[in-house]
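re: ur question from earlier - yeah i can do the single chain one, its not a big deal. heres the input i used so u can compare w yours
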Amino acid sequence: MFAFPHEDKQKLPRQRQHEYETDLDISLQPGETRTVSMTISPKLQSVWDSDKSDWVFVADSSVDAGASSRDIRLSTTSR
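and the output i got, formated as tokens:
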């Protein structure tokens, strides 16, 4: 899983986009469906504000799932 503030997706360094949930391993057979729920840390939906010297929460965040950051298979927006 990859999560990052939607508005800053293109501005973020690649490493920032690599934060993910490592305990999640879900495999599906072709045509199989499954509902998956997980909690995303508010820090993954935040950006560093140098003026405030603090993390600022961004409500609209992109949440992607895939085998790797270069092989994204599902994408949605978290609000």
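The radius of gyration is 14 Å. not sure if urs matches, ping me
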